[in-house]
Amino acid sequence: MNAITFVLAGMLAAATPFLLAALGELIAERAGVLNLGIEGMMAVGAVIAFLTVHQFGTHSLGFLLAGLAGAALSLVFAWLSISLRANQVAAGLAIGILGQGLSALFGKNYESKTVSGLPKLSVPGLGELPVVGGLFTQDFVVWIALLATFAIWAALRFSKMGLVIRAVGENPAAARSLGYPVIAIRYGAVLFGGLMAGFAGAYASTVYTPLWADGMIAGRGWIALALVVFATWMTGRVFFGAVLFGAVSLAQLAAQAGGVNLNSQLLACLPYLVTIAVLGIISSNRRLLKVNGVASLGKTYIP
Amino acid sequence: MPAPLLSLRGLTKTYGTVRANRGIDLEVAQGSIHAILGENGAGKSTLMKLIYGVETPDAGEVIWQGNPVRLTSPAEARRQGIGMVFQHFSLFETLTVVENISLIVPGRKAELAARIRELGQEYGLEVEPRAHVHSLSVGERQRVEIIRCLMTDPRLLILDEPTSVLPPQSVTRLFQTLTRLRDRGVSILFISHKLEEIRSICDRATILRDGQVTGNIDPREHDAHDLAKMMIGRDMPAPRPAIAREPGEIRLELAGLDYRPDDPFAQSLSKISLRLHAGEILGIAGVSGNGQAELARLISGETTRPAAADEIRMMGKSVGHLGAAARRKLGFAFVPEERLGRGAVPEMSLADNSLLTAHRFGLVQRGLINRSREADFTARCIKDYDVRTPGPQAEAGALSGGNLQKFIVGREIMLAPKILFVSQPTWGVDIGAATAIRRRMVDLRNDGVAVLIISEEIEELFEICDRIQVIREGRLSPSLNVAETRVEDIGRYMIGAEERAGI
Prior knowledge:
- The structure holds two protein chains of two kinds.
- By secondary structure, chain A is mainly α.
- Chain A has helices at residues 2-30, 38-56, 59-83, 88-106, 140-158, 160-170, 172-177, 182-208, 220-230, 235-257, 264-282, 286-292; strands spanning 120-122, 137-139.
- Chain A has a two-stranded antiparallel sheet.
- Chain B folds into three domains: 6-232, Rossmann fold (3-Layer(aba) Sandwich), CATH 3.40.50; 251-331 and 421-503, Rossmann fold; 339-416, no CATH class.
- Chain B is globular, with a radius of gyration of 24 Å.
- Chain B starts with 5 loop residues before the first strand and ends in an 8-residue tail after the last helix.
- The interface between A and B is medium-sized, with 21 and 22 residues.
């Protein structure tokens, strides 16, 4: 029973770095830009947030600066891939590596230092329930991430802005012929992706594990990227995938702690395997894939 | 006489060294249907892009309702009251009809849907507003495009080759819509190279050749022959007569071919049966998207079938499981509909492109390319098929559509095939080249080759085919003898005779 309580209480927080980064990437990809630099943008966000919180002790300022740093790095990527029409894959990888390098540089003197995390806010009434109570006791950022998920789902589905982003992603030439500024829209989408990646990094370094270690993002940006693709560019599935990954990560920790007699390396693989299997199965519907797929994804647009 | 709605004075546009439009003068009257007539490459599309603000002219002026205007973007053109329906639709397939329309028309979706229905009834443009565009037929998509334009309340509507994608009955319906629009004061610029259409609906025609205006006439006072002469600048070559001959043995047979593609947007095929004999031309008519692409891939061997199925036979041999190369070895030659990327590699020279299918004809020896034979072969193809190009080393992608098509058809014919399969032989090809390609195919038939053609141009099929079968929703009609069939009969099969006209 303890394990279930543990997983329920922690899975949303564990999912939040993935969720924030993947939501940002979702918008960029929906507009047709594949940003492979997410990992580096998260790393830069993480270090900027950690330094800020370490210095001033205010998380809100840390998140703000981390978001701006992620966006700034994504601006370089956007300039390379959209304005200079560099290959998106190559530009994304390069910017990602640059971000990881910058992160290591800035964080050099802070190795193993810690900051305080964030207090948890509980939904009155629900938070005191047995077993599931932990699910309703989360820090502020988790609640914001949940709201953001809903807002992005609604925006893509119902708003004019979402419609335009989808149109640009499907057929940029046609969108331009209707008079939409394709370049500006793609820039905006990429910057939003960078901003969210910065937030995601900030959450990882100052809230989830408020301790600095070089390379602490540890592939979470890549998982976020994979989530977007496996979720067939649908917001609800991105959320589901992120929470599933978070839940299985905690479950395998609980299993190790509970003395389950299995190779620990194998257990550590479990979140990856389960997420790939589940999302792979739900994304096998080719009709959905075609309807939600982004036709111009990764292709350089030349007006 | 009232002032013209739109006047163009000396409009000029140059792309690199190509002068696409040179000093174009044009006047479109209020409430008229005005044709822009010209061959591919004559500058029609460029001119329309200038009027719709997609491109800006290098020189000349545009006068709209008496005032000089600068149209710098499509949004600006729409604001002035100019709407355009593109030949290749600019609809978003993954969005619904009403979402597509809301991209340029402000308003709540419910109100827009109501207006779409209203306009649909008024002008005969019925379409379901909540349907996804990818599920619509080509005719329906065109209606969506027209409605989208009408909702911005235009004074001038530009239609770029609107009938090239429609079956005959839908063309009639489109013309009724256009006439109704004209009667309510909307002027229409109608781009086409189909002479009979222009004679039947337009009250004015401007003819373009090589980027210049060569005529400004009332098309009802001239016959199609005159118009063609003005358009191509010389007399039309006469079509090659087909010699009456008994068809020979069966070269290609499809027996009850069933096919379900993996791609959800592709058309399934069911019970496709046809027999193609030596010395005949069989045409497959139909509106695009009814299974032509899937059928072409199955016949060419790009899609293979399990060996047990035995649904496709060439020269009496079951070939369903064989790939494209193995089928070519049996004497099969194929010209796909996409010239760039499938019929030829755009970045490669013509010489290297001939190597792609002619490698068995001594061009490759002991695994090495024989460059001189390759050059000979290519030079012969260029000369015999009148391909206008600097030479065998020219990049395939640099050729105009018509010239590249002549090259590809020539290359395939030089392989001396037993079966020649050509998909959309004259798509986007100018009249001169199209006539040349059709004559070649008739020659081939007269020499006893089995020729199979997929085409959307009914006139073309009637001109050269012995028999026609119509493909619709993945099913093939019975074989119709061209000599005993009328165009309307084909049209009925194209839309499904049991359904109401105009789908």
